[in-house]
Amino acid sequence: MRTIFSxxxxxxxxxxxxxxxxxxxxxxxxxxxxxxxxESGAAKFALETVLANADTAAREKMAVCQDTGYAVVLAExxxxxxxxxxPLSEAVDEGVRRAYADCCFRKSICDPLTRxxxxxxxxxxxxxxxxxxxxxxxxxxxxxxGSENMxxxxxxxxxxxxxxxxxxxxxxxxxxxxxxxxxxxxxVGIGGTFDTCAHLAKKALTRELGSHHPREDVASIEQEAxxxxxxxxxxxxxxxxxxxxxxxxxxxxxxxxxxxxxxxNIQCHCMRCEKAEI
Length: 278
Hints:
Blueprint: E1 2-5, H1 6-22, H2 26-38, H3 41-60, E2 70-78, E3 81-84, H4 88-102, E4 125-131, E5 136-143, H5 145-148, E6 152-156, H6 161-176, E7 184-192, H7 194-204, H8 216-230, E8 245-255, E9 260-267, E10 274-277
Parallel strand pairs: 1-3, 2-4, 7-8
Antiparallel strand pairs: 2-5, 5-10, 6-9, 7-9
Helix pairs in contact: 1-4, 2-3, 6-8
């Protein structure tokens, strides 16, 4: 049994939050650069502006997007780990609290009814998974709500099958239009239940852009959905063009014989995600 102190987790979350909010992921930057090379006119200008903004944010150590998001933390806890000190959720929240205060990131979390702000961007959305080993792996995903609000959950019938899955992904992006600041990334959960499907979609957004699901049938859904989305012509920031999405990333789980849940979690062009291992 290995002991990890809650302060180590708090400090790791602090560092992840700071890095994530200041920069695009390397794979996102590559994808945006490639998209800018493919486009012309207003769409090209929009993509070049997005890239220039990312350069300025990194150089000046300023948030790459003013919406520094809901702090989503995915934690894989080794079954041979003992966490000593504060409860895990409190350590994660304290890391978020300190980072958002010290870095002057926008605090966006509020009571859903009174709309009173919690003033420190907590609580974080914490997802835990017990895995083999004696380490803790953390993933920090600041999720802006311009894109989160455009996400959808479908409870399809099994008869709708593969075509229904692709149609659900494409429809989500079509209905969103320019609202989620395209070009977007689609995290897609297929299977499971109403709730696990949505979690899968969020988890899919932690994958590298350009990666493909190891299952050939799932990878073919990713490719077909991406092609059909880019044929919509919405384009960067809604200016039209060839690139409406940078990627479609699917994750799957077995589901009930009577169901086919599909969740589509939209991510804007500002893909931010940092990972660490303790």
